[in-house]
Amino acid sequence: MTSAVAANQSGDALYRGVSEGTGLAAANLARTSTADESAEQMQSCECCGLKEECTRAYIGHVRTLFCGRYVCGLCAEAVKEERGRLQSASMEDALRAHMVVCAQFNHAARADPLVQLAAVAELMRQILRKSGSNPGSPSGSPKRQWRSNVAPLRSQSCIVLKAPSAEFS
For the whole model, what pTM was predicted? Predict the structure, then answer.
């Protein structure tokens, strides 16, 4: 209120009072927008329809990677696999191809939710097999090859038994 009285006495003070108020409003707005960025919200995958709880920052990051569309983690891996399989395809082409597959799957699986759940589990299993068995796969690590002629690192138990010691008097 003191700023308002000073603002009425001179035009310069009025200008300064307004700019200080604007600065406070901008600071409050920045604080609010930062809180909004970290607040979680439900987001639906544009391919399969799966809903996930994500922050706005994460949603924005995913959209920059996938041509402005939000895709869940499972669909993101499938799109990456599709892009690697097609090799010359752009991200948009791989995304479009995956969305066609998802649309066909969703149409067939809507009749029975248990069928849909089993199909999602099977798709996840296939993706894990592909990523683990293909050493050149961008999303997976090479499958480990174990040699049968390697001896174990230790051949005794790790439990040490102590002999009873003589008591000292």
Answer: 0.47
Q: Could you tell me which of 127, 138, 115, 131 has the C-alpha nearest to residue 72? A: 127
- Specify the long-range contacts of residues 112-120, CB closer than 8 Å, at least 24 apart: 120/48, 120/74
Furthest C-alpha separation in the chain: 98
Same-domain status, 15 and 58: no
- Structure confidence at residue 19 (pLDDT): 46
> Is residue 23 located within the same domain as residue 83?
no
Is the domain of 68 the same as that of 103?
Answer: yes
pLDDT tens digits, 30-71: 555 555 667 889 999 998 888 989 999 999 999 999 999 999
Answer whether 157's CB lies under 8 Å from 151's CB. no
- Domain range for 1 is 1-38
